[in-house]
Amino acid sequence: MTDTPTDHLKPSFRSDVSVELVKHSAADSDVLWAARVSTAGEQSLDELTKDPERSKGLINFLMRDRHGSPFEHNSMTFFISAPIFVFREFMRHRVGWSYNEESGRYRELQPVFYVPGRDRKLVQEGRPGKYVFVDGSDEQHELTGRVMEDSYRRSYEAYQEMLDAGVAREVARSVLPVGLYSSMYATCNARSLMHFLGLRTQHEQATVPSFPQREIEMVGEKMEAEWAKLMPLTYAAFNKNGRVAP
Protein backbone atom coordinates (compact mmCIF):
# COMPACT_ATOMS: atom_id res chain seq x y z
CA MET A 1 0.00 0.00 0.00
CA THR A 2 1.39 3.39 -0.96
CA ASP A 3 1.51 6.32 1.44
CA THR A 4 -0.26 8.64 -1.00
CA PRO A 5 -3.90 8.42 -2.09
CA THR A 6 -4.72 6.80 -5.40
CA ASP A 7 -6.62 8.60 -8.14
CA HIS A 8 -10.18 9.38 -7.11
CA LEU A 9 -12.52 6.46 -7.68
CA LYS A 10 -16.15 6.62 -8.68
CA PRO A 11 -18.52 5.22 -6.02
CA SER A 12 -20.36 2.02 -6.90
CA PHE A 13 -23.42 0.50 -5.27
CA ARG A 14 -24.42 -3.05 -4.39
CA SER A 15 -27.44 -4.75 -2.84
CA ASP A 16 -25.85 -8.17 -2.27
CA VAL A 17 -23.28 -9.80 0.01
CA SER A 18 -20.62 -12.35 -0.87
CA VAL A 19 -19.40 -15.34 1.12
CA GLU A 20 -16.56 -17.64 0.08
CA LEU A 21 -15.46 -20.75 1.95
CA VAL A 22 -11.69 -20.43 1.68
CA LYS A 23 -10.51 -23.17 4.04
CA HIS A 24 -12.06 -25.96 6.04
CA SER A 25 -11.49 -29.07 8.09
CA ALA A 26 -15.04 -30.19 8.71
CA ALA A 27 -16.86 -33.50 8.27
CA ASP A 28 -19.53 -35.51 10.03
CA SER A 29 -16.85 -38.02 11.06
CA ASP A 30 -15.29 -35.29 13.24
CA VAL A 31 -18.38 -35.38 15.43
CA LEU A 32 -18.26 -39.16 15.73
CA TRP A 33 -14.65 -39.65 16.80
CA ALA A 34 -14.96 -36.77 19.26
CA ALA A 35 -18.08 -38.29 20.79
CA ARG A 36 -16.89 -41.90 20.93
CA VAL A 37 -13.61 -41.16 22.71
CA SER A 38 -15.59 -41.16 25.96
CA THR A 39 -16.24 -44.92 25.61
CA ALA A 40 -13.69 -46.15 23.06
CA GLY A 41 -10.58 -44.13 23.88
CA GLU A 42 -8.00 -44.15 21.11
CA GLN A 43 -10.12 -46.63 19.14
CA SER A 44 -12.49 -43.76 18.38
CA LEU A 45 -10.02 -42.74 15.66
CA ASP A 46 -11.34 -45.67 13.64
CA GLU A 47 -14.28 -43.41 12.81
CA LEU A 48 -12.02 -41.46 10.46
CA THR A 49 -12.06 -44.35 7.95
CA LYS A 50 -15.69 -45.39 8.38
CA ASP A 51 -18.80 -44.15 6.62
CA PRO A 52 -20.47 -41.68 8.99
CA GLU A 53 -23.85 -42.47 7.43
CA ARG A 54 -24.06 -45.60 9.60
CA SER A 55 -23.82 -43.45 12.71
CA LYS A 56 -26.24 -40.67 11.84
CA GLY A 57 -28.39 -41.83 14.76
CA LEU A 58 -25.59 -40.89 17.15
CA ILE A 59 -25.29 -37.44 15.58
CA ASN A 60 -29.03 -36.95 15.96
CA PHE A 61 -28.87 -38.10 19.60
CA LEU A 62 -26.08 -35.65 20.38
CA MET A 63 -28.01 -32.82 18.75
CA ARG A 64 -31.34 -33.74 20.37
CA ASP A 65 -29.94 -34.07 23.89
CA ARG A 66 -27.62 -31.07 23.43
CA HIS A 67 -24.26 -32.76 23.89
CA GLY A 68 -22.50 -29.91 22.17
CA SER A 69 -18.74 -30.33 22.50
CA PRO A 70 -18.33 -33.04 19.79
CA PHE A 71 -19.55 -30.45 17.26
CA GLU A 72 -16.57 -28.19 18.03
CA HIS A 73 -13.79 -30.39 16.57
CA ASN A 74 -13.88 -28.86 13.09
CA SER A 75 -13.11 -25.56 11.44
CA MET A 76 -14.42 -23.39 8.61
CA THR A 77 -12.95 -20.10 7.39
CA PHE A 78 -15.10 -17.76 5.29
CA PHE A 79 -14.15 -14.62 3.38
CA ILE A 80 -17.10 -12.25 3.63
CA SER A 81 -17.85 -8.98 1.88
CA ALA A 82 -20.74 -7.01 3.37
CA PRO A 83 -21.67 -3.55 4.67
CA ILE A 84 -19.94 -2.46 7.87
CA PHE A 85 -23.22 -2.47 9.81
CA VAL A 86 -23.51 -6.22 9.13
CA PHE A 87 -20.07 -6.83 10.64
CA ARG A 88 -20.93 -4.85 13.75
CA GLU A 89 -23.88 -7.18 14.34
CA PHE A 90 -21.79 -10.19 13.34
CA MET A 91 -19.16 -9.49 15.97
CA ARG A 92 -21.71 -9.81 18.74
CA HIS A 93 -20.97 -13.52 18.25
CA ARG A 94 -17.75 -14.04 20.22
CA VAL A 95 -17.65 -17.63 21.49
CA GLY A 96 -16.12 -19.98 18.94
CA TRP A 97 -15.40 -17.24 16.40
CA SER A 98 -12.24 -15.52 15.15
CA TYR A 99 -12.27 -12.39 12.99
CA ASN A 100 -9.82 -10.33 10.97
CA GLU A 101 -11.24 -7.37 9.04
CA GLU A 102 -9.67 -4.94 6.59
CA SER A 103 -8.51 -1.76 8.31
CA GLY A 104 -9.23 1.84 7.41
CA ARG A 105 -6.10 2.79 9.33
CA TYR A 106 -3.79 0.97 6.96
CA ARG A 107 -5.45 1.07 3.54
CA GLU A 108 -7.50 3.53 1.54
CA LEU A 109 -11.06 2.27 1.67
CA GLN A 110 -12.79 1.62 -1.63
CA PRO A 111 -16.03 3.47 -2.51
CA VAL A 112 -18.42 0.52 -2.62
CA PHE A 113 -21.70 1.13 -0.79
CA TYR A 114 -24.88 -0.72 0.09
CA VAL A 115 -28.26 0.26 -1.36
CA PRO A 116 -31.22 -2.05 -0.63
CA GLY A 117 -32.56 -4.03 -3.56
CA ARG A 118 -36.17 -3.80 -4.67
CA ASP A 119 -36.98 -7.02 -2.81
CA ARG A 120 -35.80 -5.58 0.54
CA LYS A 121 -38.82 -4.77 2.77
CA LEU A 122 -38.53 -1.12 3.79
CA VAL A 123 -41.36 -0.31 6.18
CA GLN A 124 -41.53 -1.40 9.83
CA GLU A 125 -45.01 -1.73 11.30
CA GLY A 126 -45.87 -2.36 14.97
CA ARG A 127 -44.08 -1.78 18.23
CA PRO A 128 -40.75 -3.28 19.36
CA GLY A 129 -41.16 -6.98 20.03
CA LYS A 130 -44.30 -7.17 17.87
CA TYR A 131 -43.36 -5.62 14.56
CA VAL A 132 -43.20 -6.78 10.98
CA PHE A 133 -41.56 -5.43 7.84
CA VAL A 134 -43.62 -4.84 4.73
CA ASP A 135 -42.81 -3.85 1.16
CA GLY A 136 -42.22 -0.18 0.57
CA SER A 137 -43.89 1.78 -2.19
CA ASP A 138 -42.17 2.62 -5.43
CA GLU A 139 -41.75 6.15 -4.14
CA GLN A 140 -40.10 4.96 -0.93
CA HIS A 141 -37.67 2.75 -2.83
CA GLU A 142 -36.80 5.59 -5.21
CA LEU A 143 -36.28 7.95 -2.28
CA THR A 144 -34.13 5.45 -0.36
CA GLY A 145 -31.84 4.76 -3.30
CA ARG A 146 -31.50 8.40 -4.30
CA VAL A 147 -30.84 9.73 -0.79
CA MET A 148 -28.41 6.97 0.14
CA GLU A 149 -26.40 7.27 -3.07
CA ASP A 150 -26.20 11.06 -2.72
CA SER A 151 -25.07 10.76 0.91
CA TYR A 152 -22.46 8.16 0.02
CA ARG A 153 -21.02 10.30 -2.77
CA ARG A 154 -20.71 13.35 -0.51
CA SER A 155 -19.12 11.38 2.34
CA TYR A 156 -16.56 9.77 0.03
CA GLU A 157 -15.71 13.15 -1.50
CA ALA A 158 -15.06 14.46 2.01
CA TYR A 159 -12.89 11.42 2.73
CA GLN A 160 -10.86 11.96 -0.43
CA GLU A 161 -10.52 15.67 0.27
CA MET A 162 -8.91 14.95 3.63
CA LEU A 163 -6.60 12.30 2.19
CA ASP A 164 -5.51 14.69 -0.56
CA ALA A 165 -4.67 17.25 2.13
CA GLY A 166 -2.43 14.76 3.91
CA VAL A 167 -4.81 13.85 6.72
CA ALA A 168 -4.13 10.35 8.11
CA ARG A 169 -6.39 7.56 6.90
CA GLU A 170 -7.38 6.69 10.47
CA VAL A 171 -8.77 10.21 10.90
CA ALA A 172 -10.31 10.69 7.46
CA ARG A 173 -12.29 7.44 7.67
CA SER A 174 -14.47 8.98 10.37
CA VAL A 175 -16.71 10.58 7.75
CA LEU A 176 -17.55 7.29 6.03
CA PRO A 177 -20.93 5.63 6.72
CA VAL A 178 -21.72 2.11 7.95
CA GLY A 179 -23.16 1.35 4.52
CA LEU A 180 -19.59 1.11 3.19
CA TYR A 181 -18.56 -2.42 2.23
CA SER A 182 -15.81 -4.08 4.23
CA SER A 183 -14.30 -7.55 4.08
CA MET A 184 -13.16 -10.02 6.69
CA TYR A 185 -12.12 -13.57 7.41
CA ALA A 186 -14.40 -15.31 9.89
CA THR A 187 -13.47 -18.71 11.33
CA CYS A 188 -15.85 -20.87 13.33
CA ASN A 189 -16.78 -24.44 14.17
CA ALA A 190 -20.12 -26.14 13.54
CA ARG A 191 -21.41 -25.49 17.04
CA SER A 192 -20.71 -21.75 16.90
CA LEU A 193 -22.13 -21.57 13.38
CA MET A 194 -25.33 -23.30 14.50
CA HIS A 195 -25.75 -20.75 17.27
CA PHE A 196 -25.26 -17.96 14.73
CA LEU A 197 -27.79 -19.46 12.32
CA GLY A 198 -30.33 -19.98 15.09
CA LEU A 199 -30.28 -16.25 15.82
CA ARG A 200 -29.55 -14.71 12.41
CA THR A 201 -31.80 -16.65 10.05
CA GLN A 202 -35.49 -17.40 9.86
CA HIS A 203 -36.47 -20.96 8.98
CA GLU A 204 -39.69 -22.97 8.90
CA GLN A 205 -38.14 -25.73 11.03
CA ALA A 206 -36.92 -23.40 13.79
CA THR A 207 -38.67 -23.99 17.11
CA VAL A 208 -37.42 -20.67 18.51
CA PRO A 209 -38.37 -17.64 16.41
CA SER A 210 -35.67 -15.24 15.26
CA PHE A 211 -35.95 -11.70 13.93
CA PRO A 212 -32.68 -10.94 12.13
CA GLN A 213 -31.95 -7.89 10.04
CA ARG A 214 -32.23 -9.03 6.45
CA GLU A 215 -28.66 -8.12 5.47
CA ILE A 216 -27.00 -10.33 8.10
CA GLU A 217 -29.49 -13.08 7.27
CA MET A 218 -28.24 -12.93 3.67
CA VAL A 219 -24.73 -13.68 4.94
CA GLY A 220 -26.03 -16.46 7.17
CA GLU A 221 -27.87 -18.13 4.31
CA LYS A 222 -24.72 -18.29 2.19
CA MET A 223 -22.63 -19.66 5.06
CA GLU A 224 -25.32 -22.24 5.80
CA ALA A 225 -25.30 -23.47 2.21
CA GLU A 226 -21.55 -24.10 2.36
CA TRP A 227 -21.71 -25.84 5.75
CA ALA A 228 -24.59 -28.09 4.63
CA LYS A 229 -22.36 -29.55 1.92
CA LEU A 230 -19.50 -30.27 4.34
CA MET A 231 -21.50 -31.88 7.17
CA PRO A 232 -24.84 -33.07 5.72
CA LEU A 233 -25.73 -35.40 8.62
CA THR A 234 -25.02 -32.74 11.23
CA TYR A 235 -26.94 -30.21 9.18
CA ALA A 236 -29.95 -32.54 8.88
CA ALA A 237 -29.93 -33.17 12.64
CA PHE A 238 -29.75 -29.43 13.29
CA ASN A 239 -32.90 -28.86 11.24
CA LYS A 240 -34.69 -31.94 12.59
CA ASN A 241 -34.19 -30.76 16.15
CA GLY A 242 -35.50 -27.26 15.70
CA ARG A 243 -32.33 -25.41 14.66
CA VAL A 244 -31.20 -24.95 18.25
CA ALA A 245 -27.45 -25.16 18.78
CA PRO A 246 -26.49 -28.04 21.11
From TrEMBL:
Residues that coordinate or bind dUMP: E89, F90, M91, R92, E101, E102, S103, G104, R105, R173, R200
Pathway assigned to this chain's UniProt record: Pyrimidine metabolism; dTTP biosynthesis
Listed GO MF terms: thymidylate synthase (FAD) activity
Enzyme superclass (EC): transferase
Listed cofactors: FAD
GO biological process, one term: methylation
Annotated FAD binding sites: S69, R92, H93, R94, E101, N189, A190, R191, H195
Enzyme Commission designation: 2.1.1.148
Cofactor binding description: Binds 4 FAD per tetramer. Each FAD binding site is formed by three monomers.
Active site: R200
Gene3D superfamilies given in the database record: 3.30.1360.170
Recorded catalytic activity of this chain's protein: dUMP + (6R)-5,10-methylene-5,6,7,8-tetrahydrofolate + NADPH + H(+) = dTMP + (6S)-5,6,7,8-tetrahydrofolate + NADP(+)
Keyword Transferase included in the entry's annotation: yes
Keywords, sorted A to Z: FAD, Flavoprotein, Methyltransferase, NADP, Nucleotide biosynthesis, Transferase
Purpose of the protein: Catalyzes the reductive methylation of 2'-deoxyuridine-5'-monophosphate (dUMP) to 2'-deoxythymidine-5'-monophosphate (dTMP) while utilizing 5,10-methylenetetrahydrofolate (mTHF) as the methyl donor, and NADPH and FADH(2) as the reductant.
Subunit relationships: Homotetramer.
Family designation: Belongs to the thymidylate synthase ThyX family.
PANTHER family attached to this UniProt entry: FLAVIN-DEPENDENT THYMIDYLATE SYNTHASE (PTHR34934)
Name the UniProt record assigns to this protein: Flavin-dependent thymidylate synthase
Lineage: Bacteria, Bacillati, Actinomycetota, Actinomycetes, Kitasatosporales
